[in-house]
Amino acid sequence: MSRWRDIKQNKVIKEEQVIVEKKDEITCAPILSRIKAFITDTFLITTPIFYIVIYLIMGSGETFSLYRVEGWGLILIIHLAIILAFWLKTGQTPGMKAYNIKVINNKTKNRISIFSGIIRYFILLLCIISIFGLFTIYFRKDNKTFQDIFSNTSIIEIDS
After folding, report:
1. Measured at the alpha carbon of residue 34, what is the angle toward residues 94 and 121, in degrees to the nearest 5?
2. What count of other Cβ atoms lies within 10 Å of the Cβ of residue 51?
3. pLDDT grade, residue 56 (50/70/90)?
């Protein structure tokens, strides 16, 4: 009898409403795909920049060791420009494209803005340096990392 009253008074949640609520949630890409994409990007983007700065711009490894702060600053600025260009144009770096993942804005479900990209990049650097931020993925059920939370972005899997 109580079920009939609940249905009559619209207290029962319909199955359609539950399905709509589940579609709005963003499921993040698995950590293994993210790590593989990061390693791929390191070899495809960061390593050539590293060698160009050390040997073509600074001249030698000895000069780089003398001016280490300037060298790393130059490497990070060039790397930021390249990564940000990939994120703004397609939402994917070459490593992300290889593993069918993409960076999106949580609110618009489209590509990220320049501001979100810069925040994401620098928080990622802080997480790599401190190691603390890299482990947040293991404490959250939605697989979001520290940089995802603060830049309001997500890395999702896409259909190929």
Report:
1. 75
2. 10
3. very high
